[in-house]
Every structure is written in structure tokens, then in C-alpha cells.
């Protein structure tokens, strides 16, 4: 028998359904999301929480003519399923498959690409005012979570939108969760506003707009439940210029649909506050929305299981352990995360050092300057932040940290290709955008042990240092227990090409920055090349570099970051400054965005696995590689 969901190939099909069938459709949709994500992995608890909201939005609004902009966009699997991509969900976040976030190139219903949080209101306002300017009667709807609401950019947009005349609706999807529990002074402010004035206001607003509303005592119960949540007070939004409506039950189609129908006919900026549950409808995710925020594959019948064989330590775990060990040694250490406690490995640190742990919410700009403030008073802040999310705090890094030369350690997780999350989350640019800043240093550990050692090296400095390391596990080397630092700014020769007289200027040297050291060593065995583990993109170990350049006919630079402006560029700049002319082949990430997929496969496709490195070097320096004679192929 054909399921109801199988009859929906686009929202027009949905809008043809009688309203009485929407509950059954939502139930099927939720089951489909759970089944699909359990097979592919991906974001789960946020998607389970937006099933009814998604059905109601596509039912009430004339999508894609009316625009939906999903903040972060990790919660758009129901949206993708209802907009013609149901059959492709099996390809989620795989090479050539569906993105885990909305992408304009993927569907006309994905009106704006998201993934970094808190952009939706700005984008939707742009769409609303464009429609106004073009004389189009079009709605623009931003759906933003309570976590995403904590970012300054969201308030910048609210501040602007509240006085704009466009057909803009902002929907706050308040499930009282970020990835981890939400943080911020707003919660305290909300608690104060939950009684008295706000409660009365909410009650009155409820009567005005809602027809089929949950009984008011249910509303009161929810308001009490969310005293600590992110139920932002109507007064705040009205002061911004919005007509605030809610909070309403975001799982009740009989509340959602009449409310949205009403709002469609209202003029001026509208703000609808819906209350949902992260993980709704799947008990294990309801009980632990953090664990089910972004799970791998699992059996829904039994839920997430601990891996039978202990997996190799990840760089994140190495960082988390180092942070605790260094905190024990140095009371000045404080740990900061912008809403990524689990992802950055600070769970244990928070337990052991709650007074020195700061989760500032999704507020990367603030996290950088906050760290600078701590450092200006003699503390030693370690800011754990994904490379890609540091992009949000770039001006603060220059203006508040580097110019004042404050000793902040930037622990940059997810450096390089991340894989499933795709181009928006790649940590591809940090070497390029950091090494050009005076006072900044950039360490590139080759493995987990060097990561621990270089974190200590960074922590010992009296100026800002970034230590970059990739998502997942490394080479699996033994990790020493102590807190020994590696020499600041110094690299090492890891392999010497054999068969050449020591003083001969022969063969190729591969100059590596970071974890590509290991595939480089593999390639070097085949090429009989020298391998240099530089460890630092800045300061460059120029002495070592010039020594190696003098001893070889050609150099290859290798990094898991953008070639343009990256570490390889630092090498060519240094050779040029020293008046050394040698052919240099720069290997790294090309000048294009690399889509989602398995990270190992993506790196191979970029020629950054051992075979690819060997091939690139052979193609460029064939004569050198084949015979070792000094004849150099003319360097194009
Ligand atoms: C700028 C930025 N920082 C951090 C993240 C990581 N991140 C993804 S989802 C999320 C929590 C979002 O919470 P909320 O908006 O409430 O959505 P929910 O998951 O509760 O549906 C975070 C911190 C991000 N995507 N973008
Ligand atoms: C949606 C979002 O931005 C985060 O959930 C991100 O996907 C986490 O990435 P990791 O899985 O690498 O921690
Ligand atoms: Mg939330």
C-alpha cells in the first residue's frame, strides 16, 4: 500500500491534502527521518523536532515562491523530503549526494545556503525587501533556533528588520537546546520576565491570534517549563519593532496552521515563537538530544551503542586531555568554547574545572575578544574553536588579540577537509588567514603526540598562537603523558633521501606542514625523497628550510589547507627573500570549494593521499625522480 508520504513529491502535493491528513503525514515523515538518518548518520534530534513546523510551513506558504530560510539548516531533512528529495535521502552527506544543509544548487526550495548559524534573518530580510522593491507580493520566512538566536548577527538583523517594511516572518524554534544546553544571561533575564507582565502579555497575545490553541493552563505550564529556556520576552521583540506572537506548541498542527494562516495576512515584521522538543517522537533522542544531535549510523531499535573496540584517540580527545593536564599545572589556564563543548572536547574540562570553563554560546566574535579580555588580566585563555567558525571572529583576532599581542591559544579543531559537513565547515583557510597577521604564530602538528606537545609550546608563549588539527583520529602514534613542549618555531628532517653524497645538491625535498607528513613519508619511500616536518607555518624555520633547499634540486610543499596564501606560499616567500631560486611544487587544497563526502576519499580526489602526492611529484620532476641526475625538467 502506498504511504501518504510517498504521494508527496513536492509541496503542491502536500497542499492538496485535507488538513485532517496532515497529522498522519507528519507521523510518517518523522518515521522516515529516523529510519533514514539511522542508516546514513547525520543530524537527528533537531530534524525530529521540526517535522510539524516543516509540514505547516509548506502547507500554509506558497513555497518556493514564498521563501523559507532555515538557520544553520541542519534541521532541514523534513524540508528536503517534502520537496522532492525523499528518494535521495540515502545519499545524505555522501560524495555526489544530498548536502546536510540547504543548498541553492540542490533545489529551488533551498532558497538560501546555510550551515554557519544565525544568518537566516539577514538573508530573509534581504529577500523581503527585494520583493518589496520589485513589487512582488512574496513572504520571506526565517526559521531560527534558540541557540542560533544567541549570536550577535541575529540581533544585528532583528535590529534592522524591526524597522523595515518587508513581508518578513521570523520563527524562533525554541527547543531549549543548542547542541548542548543553551547558555547565556538571556536565560536569567527570561526567568525574570516569565512571571507577571510577560505572562499576561503572552496570555493576551495567545487569545488574539490563536484559534485552536492548547488550553491556557498548558501554555502556562510551558512558560514555566521554559523559565530557564530561551523564551525571549515579547517586550524585547516588540521593542525591536516586531509583532510578537506566541509561544505556541510547535508540534501541534492545529496551533501552527491557523496561526501561520493569520500571520500571513498581517503587515509588517512578524515574530512567531514556537516551542518544540529536540528529538521529538524518538524517546532515546528526547532523553539525550545531545547524543543524537549528529549521530553516526545506528539501530533505532536499540539506539547508540559504545563502539566494541576502543577507537583510536581523536585529536579532539588529545586536546581535551591536554587541557585538563595543563589546567592542573597552571591555574591561569581558562577554557572557552562558543557552544561546541562536546565537539571541541571540553566535557571533562567543564566537570573538573567548572570555574575556569566558559561556554559563551554561538558567539565566536565575542569568544575571541572575551579571551583577549581574560589574557589582558594575566590569565591564559585557551579558545577551543573549529577552524571554520574562527572565521566569524577574524576581526576580533586581529584587533583585540594580535595588535595587543595577548597570549591567547587558539585550539583550531576541524582544520582541513572535514568531510560530511562539506565546504561550509572546511577548515581550509586558517593558515592563509592567520600567518599574514603580525604577532600570530601557527603550529601544524603532524600527529596526536605533536599536537599535545605543540599545544604546550603554544601555551608557553607570551603572544597569540594557533594550533591546528583535523577532525578525527591521526596516525595512531604513542602519546606521551608529560607536558613537554617542542622547540618554538622549529621543524625537523624526518627522512633523508638515500644514495646521494651528503654534500651533493640532489633530488627532491618534501616540506610538510601537519598531518600530511605520513602520506608524504609513504610517497618519499617510492621517490627516494627527503621529508621535512616543518611543524610551524609561522614562524617558518627558515634556517632549516634554506639548509634543505641548498641540499636539493627541487622542493615540494605539502599542507591540508588552501594552497593560495598557505604554508607553501610562506616557503616561496622565504626562498625569494633569501635570493634562493629553486623549483617549488606547492601541494594542498585548490582554489575551489570542496563538497561533502568521505574525507579520505575527498583528500585522495585532491591528490593529497600518498599515491596522489607521488604522482604529482613524478609528473613535475620526472627526470629528478627517475634517475636522480641533476637534469631538471624545464619548470613551466
Ligand atoms: C557560526 C556557527 N557556530 C557554531 C555552529 C555549530 N552548531 C550547529 S547547530 C548548533 C546549535 C544550534 O542550536 P539551535 O539554533 O537552537 O538549533 P537546534 O539544534 O536546537 O535545532 C551549533 C552550535 C554553527 N553551525 N555555526
Ligand atoms: C550543524 C553544525 O554546524 C554542527 O553540528 C557540526 O555539524 C558539527 O560538526 P562535527 O560533527 O565535526 O562536530
Ligand atoms: Mg535549539
List key phrases describing it.
40% helix, EC 2.2.1.7, 27 helices, alpha/beta, 636 residues, Transketolase_BS, binds 1-deoxy-D-xylulose-5-phosphate, 17 strands, binds thiamine diphosphate, thiamine biosynthesis, 5-stranded parallel β-sheet, Rossmann fold, binds magnesium ion, 1-deoxy-D-xylulose-5-phosphate synthase activity, isoprene biosynthesis, disordered C terminus, 14% strand, 7-stranded mixed β-sheet
How would you describe this protein?
With 636 residues, the chain is of the alpha/beta class. The protein folds into 3 domains: 63-74 and 83-196 and 232-276, Rossmann fold (3-Layer(aba) Sandwich), CATH 3.40.50.970; 315-468, Thiamin diphosphate (ThDP)-binding fold, Pyr/PP domains (Rossmann fold), CATH 3.40.50; 492-632, Rossmann fold. Helix content is 40%, strand content 14%. It has 27 helices and 17 strands. A 7-stranded mixed β-sheet has the order 7-6-8-9-11-10-15, with helices on both faces. Helix 17 packs parallel to helix 19 and helix 22 packs across helix 26. The radius of gyration is 27 Å and the shape is globular. It starts with 10 loop residues before the first helix and ends in a 9-residue tail after the last helix. 54% of the residues are buried. Bound molecules: thiamine diphosphate (TPP), 1-deoxy-D-xylulose-5-phosphate (DXP) and magnesium ion. Residues 72, 74, 179, 294, 343, 414, 418, 421, 471 line the site of 1-deoxy-D-xylulose-5-phosphate. Pfam families: DXP_synthase_N (PF13292), Transket_pyr (PF02779), Transketolase_C (PF02780).
Amino acid at each position: 500500500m502506498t504511504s501518504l508520504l510517498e504521494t508527496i513529491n513536492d509541496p503542491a502535493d502536500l497542499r492538496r491534502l485535507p488538513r485532517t491528513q496532515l497529522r498522519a503525514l507528519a507521523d510518517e515523515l518523522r518515521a522516515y527521518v529516523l529510519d533514514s538518518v539511522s542508516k546514513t548518520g547525520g543530524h537527528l534530534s533537531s530534524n525530529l523536532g521540526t517535522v510539524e513546523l516543516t509540514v505547516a510551513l509548506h502547507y500554509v506558504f506558497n513555497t518556493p515562491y514564498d521563501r523559507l530560510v532555515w538557520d544553520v539548516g541542519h534541521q532541514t531533512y523534513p524540508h528536503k523530503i517534502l520537496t522532492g528529495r525523499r528518494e535521495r535521502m540515502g545519499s545524505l552527506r555522501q560524495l555526489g549526494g544530498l548536502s546536510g544543509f540547504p543548498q541553492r544548487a540542490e533545489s529551488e526550495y533551498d532558497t538560501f545556503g546555510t550551515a554557519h548559524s544565525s544568518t537566516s534573518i539577514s538573508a530573509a530580510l534581504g529577500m523581503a525587501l527585494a520583493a518589496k522593491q520589485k513589487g512582488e507580493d512574496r513572504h520571506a520566512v526565517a526559521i531560527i533556533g534558540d541557540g542560533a538566536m544567541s549570536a550577535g548577527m541575529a540581533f544585528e538583523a532583528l535590529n534592522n528588520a524591526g524597522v523595515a517594511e518587508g513581508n518578513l516572518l521570523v520563527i524562533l524554534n525554541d527547543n531549549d537546546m543548542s547542541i548542548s544546553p543553551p547558555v547565556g544571561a538571556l536565560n536569567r533575564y527570561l526567568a525574570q520576565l516569565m512571571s507577571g507582565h510577560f505572562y499576561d502579555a503572552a496570555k493576551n497575545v495567545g487569545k488574539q491570534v490563536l484559534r485552536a490553541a492548547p488550553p491556557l493552563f498548558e501554555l502556562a505550564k510551558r512558560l514555566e517549563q521554559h523559565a530557564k529556556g530561551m523564551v525571549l520576552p515579547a517586550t524585547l521583540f516588540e521593542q525591536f519593532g516586531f509583532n510578537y506572537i506566541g509561544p505556541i506548541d510547535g508540534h501541534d498542527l492545529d496551533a501552527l496552521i491557523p496561526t501561520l494562516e493569520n500571520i500571513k495576512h498581517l503587515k509588517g515584521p512578524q515574530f512567531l515563537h514556537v516551542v518544540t522538543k529536540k528529538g521529538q517522537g524518538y524517546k532515546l533522542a528526547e532523553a539525550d538530544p545531545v547524543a543524537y544531535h549528529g549521530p553516526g549510523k545506528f539501530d533505532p531499535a536499540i539506539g547508540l551503542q559504545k563502539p566494541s573496540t576502543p577507537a583510536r584517540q581523536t585529536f579532539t580527545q588529545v586536546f581535551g586531555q591536554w587541557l585538563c593536564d595543563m589546567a592542573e599545572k597552571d591555574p591561569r589556564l581558562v577554557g572557552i568554547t562558543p557552544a561546541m563543548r562536546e565537539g571541541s572536547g571540553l566535557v571533562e574540562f567543564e566537570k573538573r574545572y567548572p570555574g575556569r570553563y566558559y561556554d559563551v554560546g554561538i558567539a565566536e566574535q565575542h569568544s575571541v575578544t572575551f579571551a583577549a579580555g581574560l589574557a589582558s588580566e594575566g590569565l591564559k585563555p585557551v579558545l577551543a574553536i573549529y577552524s571554520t567558525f574562527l572565521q566569524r571572529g577574524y576581526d576580533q583576532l586581529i584587533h583585540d588579540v594580535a595588535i595587543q599581542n595577548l597570549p591567547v591559544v587558539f585550539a583550531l579543531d576541524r582544520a582541513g577537509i572535514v568531510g560530511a559537513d562539506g565546504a561550509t565547515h572546511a577548515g581550509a583557510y586558517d593558515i592563509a588567514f592567520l600567518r599574514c597577521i603580525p604577532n600570530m604564530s601557527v603550529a601544524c602538528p603532524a600527529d596526536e603526540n605533536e599536537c599535545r606537545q605543540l599545544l604546550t609550546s603554544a601555551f608557553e608563549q607570551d603572544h597569540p598562537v594557533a594550533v591546528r588539527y583535523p577532525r578525527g583520529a591521526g596516525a595512531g602514534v604513542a602519546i606521551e603523558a608529560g607536558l613537554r613542549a617542542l622547540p618554538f618555531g622549529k621543524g625537523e628532517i624526518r627522512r633523508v633521501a638515500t644514495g646521494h653524497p651528503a654534500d651533493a645538491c640532489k633530488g627532491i625535498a618534501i616540506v610538510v606542514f601537519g598531518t600530511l607528513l605520513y602520506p608524504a613519508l609513504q610517497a618519499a619511500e617510492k621517490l627516494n625523497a627527503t621529508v621535512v616536518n616543518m611543524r610551524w607555518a609561522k614562524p617558518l624555520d627558515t634556517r632549516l628550510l634554506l639548509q634543505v633547499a641548498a641540499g636539493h634540486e627541487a622542493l615540494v610543499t605539502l599542507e591540508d589547507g588552501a594552497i593560495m596564501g598557505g604554508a607553501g606560499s610562506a616557503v616561496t616567500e622565504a626562498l625569494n627573500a633569501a635570493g634562493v631560486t629553486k623549483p617549488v611544487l606547492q601541494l594542498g587544497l585548490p582554489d575551489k570549494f570542496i563538497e561533502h563526502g568521505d574525507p579520505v576519499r575527498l583528500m585522495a580526489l585532491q591528490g593529497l593521499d600518498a599515491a596522489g602526492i607521488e604522482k604529482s611529484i613524478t609528473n613535475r620532476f620526472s627526470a629528478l625522480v627517475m634517475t636522480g641526475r641533476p637534469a631538471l625538467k624545464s619548470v613551466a
